[in-house]
Amino acid sequence: MKEFILFAKKARTSSDFDLLDLKSAGRMDLVCRFISSALCVSNGIRKDLIVYIAMCGAKYPPKIISFYGNEILNFEPDEYEIAKKIKSALKLGENLSLNEEKKSEAGVIIVKKSFEAFIKEKSEKKFLFILILKEEI
Q: What pTM was computed for the model?
């Protein structure tokens, strides 16, 4: 199983962002494109992949949202639909305590955990890829 982590330092961690203006939500548009590019193939979803989005933006940081390719259902690869899944997970996770996790829907889990703690937890994986979203893009 391959695992990709995107560290999105300024990605909003509350659900109060506009789905029609993802750029102003800490470049949520790029986060959604990353998820789509990582999970989608021409004939479906990569079942051997987990995508983690580590988010540290306003209001309720830190949050990590996980997308499990082997469990996710009704996945549409466009930014708007992915942003709706993120928004739904963030709404559910607004009052999480540290290290608490909740399942938003099939294949989508949110946890309140620091990026550093998460990386330490995942450090023994052989196929772990970490990408960092630069704010000035």
A: 0.91
